[in-house]
Amino acid sequence: MVKSFLExxxxxxDSVSPLGxxxxxxxxxxxxxxxxxxxxxxxxxxxxxxxxxxxxVRAADCSPLSQLKITGYLPAGASADGLSVKPGTAVKxxxxxxxxxGCDAIVPIxxxxxxxETLLIQKNVQTKDYxxxxxxxxxxxxxxxxGGTVLRPTDINLLxxxxxxxxxxxxxxxxxxxxxxxxxxxxxxxxxxGQIIDGNxxxxxxxxxxxxxxxxxxxxxxxxxxxxxxxxxxxxEADVLITSAGVSTGDRDLVREILDAAGVxxxxxxxxxxxxxxTAFGLIGNKPVFSLPGNPVSSMIGFEELVRPALLKMLGHTxxxxxxxxxxxxxxxxxxxxxxRFLRVMVTKxxxxxxxxxxxxxxTGILSTMIKANGIAILTPEQKEIPAGEKVDIQLxxxxx
Length: 401
Ligand code: AMP
Ligand code: MG
Prior knowledge:
This protein has helices at about 5-15, 155-160, 200-210, 225-235, 255-260, 295-315, 370; strands spanning about 1-5, 20-25, 40, 50, 55, 65-75, 90-95, 105-110, 110-115, 120, 130, 145, 165-170, 175-180, 185, 195, 215-220, 240-245, 265-270, 270, 275, 280-285, 285-290, 325-330, 335, 340-350, 355-360, 375-380, 385, 390-395. The protein is of the alpha/beta class. The radius of gyration is 31 Å and the shape is elongated. The model has no long low-confidence stretch (mean pLDDT about 95). Adenosine monophosphate binds near residues 179, 199 and 246.
């Protein structure tokens, strides 16, 4: 049951969907995904108001050197009820204050002189000058922020301006992470001979947190039935379970067997990719279970290519794949396999576009080239060689300037 990369990714994406929604308050909305269309509850601005500190006037009264009598004062927050600008008069007004009756223009303070009682106009004035009209920004009923928007600080300003204390956003999946292996010890412990420190739980947790999902580290399961069964049962309480290691063909690779016994229906357990080939995907009800290989590089690339898009979809994103960019190979890149090959690469940007070179040793046991890489080059099974000077598809793992 070996799937091609694209088949595997589609199978996964077709199997997952956003979780329910929850009401979240304004202070905790950054990066969350709006789950409802929000029509503007009223016109923005709500009333005609002054764009400047200055004077509310009748434009027809104003030409350079005309003098007007100051008859009132409207600070921001005051009501214009009962105030009006009669011919030959002006009302002092502050930015944001409502436009009083009779006024059809604002003269900024810097275009006037005044002794507090009389106003001397120094420049020409046009009707509508410096008046922000009711509804000119956003008319009532318009959907300014549609459902599916990843909320940014500016969006949150508008939600606050709509006076919404909470809005409905998609729930963030809790993703349980289980490392498996008799050889593993937790970071901070001193490994005895033959022991390896569990790095995978933490790179996975970081990658999960980075996209806004909630990692839940279950610790280490040992390569035996009881230990795996106990931790997997715990892991299946989360929205998603990700295991690492124990899914190859070694005689202690029991993860699949225990998942089967727990009722997880395996959709596939091998993908024609390198690294990350022994990745399994199963479902228990609607709950996805990913089993990644143990090798740190393989687990990270398996996560990046197969798990991350699924989590993004569950989080409510509609764009779940990193964009593919084209980069020119500085030196030849090779796919020595019959699989989709993910190469750790270093991408640079210049005025002519992107160029790319291998980050070095592509062996799955080599973590240093993964650390050095800022991108992944994707070579299809048919692309055996990208000669120097030709273009290749790249996913950027971090932004480059
Ligand atoms: P396995 O798939 O169980 O054969 O593991 C493959 C390789 O990955 C072995 O060398 C393991 O020691 C290593 N490995 C497994 N789990 C982890 C982990 N959580 N962190 C770092 N290395 C691991
Ligand atoms: Mg193992």
